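As a warm-up, study this chain.
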Amino acid sequence: MWVVDGLVNAARMAWEVWWALVLGFALSGAVQAFVPRARLERALGGRGAREIALATGLGAASSSCSYAAIAIAKSLFQKGASFPSAMAFQFASTNLVFELGLVLWLFLGWRFTLAEFVGGIFLILLMWGALHLLVSRRREEEIRAHAREAETGHMHPTATDVALNFRADVQMLWKEIVAGFVIAGYVSLLPRGFFNGLFITGAWAPLRLVENVLVGPLVAALAFVCSIGNVPLAAVLWGGGISFSGVIAFLYADLIIVPIVVAYRKYYGARAAALLTGVMFGAMVVAALAVDGIFSLLGLVPSHRPSITSIAERPVTWNYTSVLDIVFAVVFVALFAVTLRRGAKDPVCGMTVDRAAASPSSSYRGRTVYFCGAHCKHTFDADPEAYA
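Now compare it with the structure written out below.
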């Protein structure tokens, strides 16, 4: 039955990246709890080549799922990193990481792995230049103020707060994540030629090239899958005849899928989210074209087009993914268990805050009510009956 099949496929996809999600959100919680704002301001607060290079290196080392990467980047930005530096970190942590390169190598060959990394550097440079020109320092501070207003107000110095940060970020994005996997599960049921039919595969080469790099990110945005999860679908597209550059552009688009764009809006505001999405899309297109040109000149564009089974069709077996998923399931439960001992629920936004820390609070009907930040406290105090 197709209803069950779609849910099963969604569960299989989630199984493939579960450990990465937990790890990414845990790293985000640690960044918020332990990294002093002043240190981040010194390291990533500028917009120069040094800060962008450092953010790229730190991102490549952090190795996160797309959903978790945006949470970490948001934390860095809140702490004082410049907007271009935070976005460079975000892209590098999903597209310039070891495991993505390994999966690409296994599915599509080493040339795609090399193209992913070379094009990723191009993309970060393009994004850096565009954001530097389009987002002034004054505008950056306005976006940061919005991000801090939208945050869960849980940046404290103890290990317990890592758990609270972890839980708050999960609570903020779980709906988008679940929606992404469910939609991807049903998308995987479509005929394999469905997406390939969206691309020009036999026309005049320049027209085909441009159309493929424009449509590739749009298809990825509608596929709702994380960076590593995009690789099997990219292999299907490659096997179906789309261009090398179209596949590369498709792979880069994990950070403009619909649930993540919704999260950008929540973090940075509608105007900044639209600008960021547009800049990323443009950078993806230009970077993919540049890589295609360079690889064509060097004779590195692959010609073999294998038939690949998608991630959604893989059975769950006992392998390294299963081991990691079990380990990080224990981590997930342990972190949530810690929050139950010291956590209190903000009645306005629903986030969990630390009763033992200096969280804003109000007294109402003989009990103390805790809040994630001043905004929620003000909202509650204005009409406590609506939230009591």
